[in-house]
Structures are given as structure tokens and as C-alpha cells.
Specification:
Blueprint lengths: L10 E5 L7 H15 L3 E6 L5 H6 L3 E4 L7 H18 L3 E4 L2 H14 L2 E6 L8 H7 L7 E4 L2 H10 L7 E3 L16 H11 L6 E6 L8 H11 L4 E6 L6 H13 L6 E4 L5 H7 L2 E4 L9 H8 L4 E4 L4 H4 L7 E3 L4 H12 L3 H18 L2 H16 L3
Parallel strand pairs: 1-2, 1-4, 2-3, 4-5, 5-6, 6-7, 8-9, 8-11, 9-10, 11-12, 12-13
Length: about 375
Amino acid sequence: MPQNHKKSQPVIMQIIPELGPGGAEQGCLDVAKGIVEAGGKAIVVSHGGSRIHELTRCNATHIYLPVHSKNPFVMWRNIGRIKRLIKKYNVDIVHVRSRAPAWSAYYACKKANAHFMTTCHASYNVHNEWKRKYNAVMARGERVIAVSNHVANYVFENYEMDKRNMRVIHRGVDLTKYNVNAITPAQIIKITSEWRLPEDARIVMMPGRITRLKGHHVLIDAMAKLKEKNLYCVLIGSDQGRHDYRAELDAAIEGYNLGTHVRIVDHCSELQAAYILSDVIVSASTEPEGFGRIPIEAQIMGKPIIATDHGGAQETIIHGQTGWLIPPNDSDALAETIKNVLSLNDEEKAILANNAMNHVAHNFSNEKMVDETLNVYAEFLKTP
């Protein structure tokens, strides 16, 4: 166990495979900024990515290492690399957000006398005993952060750990970025032009990478059941190489003769404006998500959200008050709920929007997530 000691500037090193899009990456960047603002030194170790400039902007330090690799030899080499970084920068806490680098960091911290902690972002699949052992490192932290109660329960059910070391910290949304009043008419016009939809179109939007577990096929099936002429569906996300599933979706759209009413958009630069433009937001995950950002983003933008009744969505949506929860893989239930949401009058929409925005602002803000994470760091940094 590392010895606590008092320093003028605590040093926190976060390790994540890459700094690209995604909830884990966003949380890493947000926490790095929070560390700096609180007077600490923030270091992020990754294999690079498109968002490194965001660290530079907040005066955090980025260090390149091949921590994305699952190659056993590279992971072994990373033990020494991380140990040297801990010594060089006098690191107090190493906070890891992924399994492969967690193994390297775990042994590096033992050798370098630094605190080791993890954030568990999902309920990882356990197909066999080898996979179970590989995942187990995420439960070895002196503190383990789970992004939802769903994930915390998964850890307790599958791995041995002292429950007193678990901290549930829900992910947060940036209330300045996701702000209805911050969206300009020009942004709305830009999205309308890009999507090339009729002025009277009613829009069902589903953001999220094109992968089967996100349930795009369920929404397409639901659209076929609705058969409303002025109802359009926009799926926003890249297939990231999952060409077979994308081809399956394209075939379903063609088979249902929905080519003019269902669009797949690889990228949206004005996602907040896209929320405003849409009438209904859908998160149709077929498997439980550890947290899921779409439900909180939709709610803070005051938009009706329909999500599947499992995983993190059960903790972020109050059914019937801030959104709706439906059974997974149920296109009939999804179609019926979309129809009911579209039938809401203006007063009902306003009540729902008010409830949803207040719910997220009080419980799932980025500021709250960062503060709670810094509090976990403080548990280590207190003078004994």
C-alpha cells in the first residue's frame, strides 16, 4: 500500500487507450480539466487520438504510449514504461479506464509505490474463465468507480472485491454545451439543409455508432409499422468498419420501401441542433449499456426520449415523467410509444421537457461527475 504524503501539487495520471469520441474519453478529458482547475497536475497517457488538443487547451499533459495494445508482450513492456513515468512525474494516483492498460498499470503501481484505481464503464462479457480473469483487473483498484449501479452490481456479482471500495459516479453532460438557449437559427438551418427533409417533417432521431447492440434494426422495423407519410427517421453514426451490419440495415430500409423516410448519416457536426430539430429521440440498445449518454443528452435538450428498459437507462430516465422505457428488441412497443409521443399536445410536451431538463441538471451534470471523481482522489491524498 502506498504511503500518503502531502504535496503542494497532487499529480494524477489517467490512462486510456485512445482519445477519440466516446463517453469514457469524454469523462477522461473532463476530469483532466477538473484536476487542473483544482490546482493539481493532470497527465493523460494514451496512444493518441483526435482530441489531444483538448488536453493542451486545459493545460494538462499528454504522453504517448501503446496502451491500446492487447499484445501480451507490449502490455508487459508497458509496465516498465508506466513505472518510469510514475517516478519521473512523482505521480500520486494512476486512474485507468480500460482493461489492457489496467494490467500494466496495476503492476507498475506496485513497483513504483503509487495508488491504483479504475473506472469500470461497462458490464464486460464473460464468455469463459480466461475472459473473466482478464476483466478482473478492473475490480482490483484501491477504489473502483462504476458509471452506474448496473455496472457496480455486475462487478459485485462477478468478482471479489471489498464493497467499501466501490464508488458509483454517473457520467455527466456539459450543461453549457447542451443548452437549448445556446443553439442558433443558423445551426438549425444547417442541419435542415444537410438532411434535406420536408418542412413539415416529423423526425425520429437515433444517435450512436452503427453496431447491432445499438438496435438500429429494431427502430427500422418500428418505422415500417408506423407507416406515417410525414414521419422521417435519421440514424446518426458511423459503422466503424461493421460493413455487414450496415448492409443489413440498408437492405431492410429498401425491403420496407423506406428509402425516402429513413436516412443513415455518418456524422453530424451540430448534434445539439439535431436534437432541437427532432421530435423524438430513440435509444434502442438490445443489450444493457453501462450508462448511455443519449438519454441524458436528449433530456437536457428537452426532447422526448424512448429507451430500452435495462442497463444505465433505468437510472437516467424516470418512466412517464422524463421519458419512456420499453422492452428491448420489441419493435411493436417502440412503434406504439413513438406514436403516443407524437400525439402529445404542447402543454404535455412542455411539462415533459421541464421535468427532463431539471432531472438531468440536478443529477447528471458534468460538474457533479468531476467533483465526485475529485473527491475519490482526495480519499488517497489526505494526510494519515
